[in-house]
Amino acid sequence: MRPGRQAAAAAVNARGGRWLDVGVGTGLELPMFGAGVRVTGVDLSEPMLAIARKRVADLGLNNVEALIAMDAMNLDFADASFDGVVSPYVITTVPDPARTLDEMARVTRPGGEIVLVNHVGADKGPIAAVEGWLGRRGQKLGWRPEFPWSVIGDWAAGRADVTLVERRTLAPLGLFTLARFRKSQHA
């Protein structure tokens, strides 16, 4: 999953500014953010945040402003608080992806970006069949392997203030997708 984290960090680094990392977990991508990026990370899991805090201290990541226990579906930040939101490997794990995306858009300033990396399920064929089989066991996996792009695409299509600016598959084997959305300047 490292190539996805690297792609997300590259998109963030290209823009710079103040970013929210939703689902920061143990902070694996935090060392990938450049000095021109200030990061606040949120995650539901306090034990994972403890590991992230140790990583930040051990690596001297002075650009990490805070690591906070918080629900992605109820972000406790004011509207337009961040230049962007980055969220690798999270959207298929939350109970309500559209609500989570709404919260990400709410805290992103006009002109800012939302950067997602995730597995998006195949529409058809043998991979779709395998993902469906795995999906029926999703409770044990903790994520939805058959997660359709339409969940994200329909969310974006239903919002006048968000535009898809990039969607591409990533290594390995195109199993993961990077999606970048830009919030309208007039939001």
What does this structure look like?
The protein is an alpha/beta fold and 187 residues long. The protein has one domain: Vaccinia Virus protein VP39 (Rossmann fold, 3-Layer(aba) Sandwich). The protein has 6 helices and 7 strands. The chain has a 7-stranded mixed β-sheet with strand order 3-2-1-4-5-7-6, with helices on both faces. Helix 3 links the parallel strand 4 and strand 5. It is globular and about 40 Å long. The N and C termini lie far apart (33 Å). 38% of the residues are buried. The model has no long low-confidence stretch (mean pLDDT 89).
Q: Quick summary of this structure?
A:
With 187 residues, the chain is α/β, with parallel strands linked by helices. The chain is built from six helices and seven strands; from the N terminus they run αββαββαβαααββ.
Number of domains: 1
Oligomer: single chain
CATH superfamily: Vaccinia Virus protein VP39
Count of DSSP E strands? 7
Helix run count: 6
Q: What would the CATH topology be?
A: Rossmann fold
Which CATH class? Alpha Beta
Order of helices and strands: HEEHEEHEHHHEE
CATH architecture: 3-Layer(aba) Sandwich
Q: How is the largest sheet built, in terms of strand order?
A: 3-2-1-4-5-7-6
Distance between the termini: 33 Å
What's the helical proportion of residues?
25-40%
Helix vs. strand class: alpha/beta
**Cα gyration radius (Å):** 16 Å
Beta-strand fraction estimate: 25-35%
Low-pLDDT segments:
none
Mean pLDDT: 89
- Biggest sheet layout: 7 strands, mixed
Shape: globular
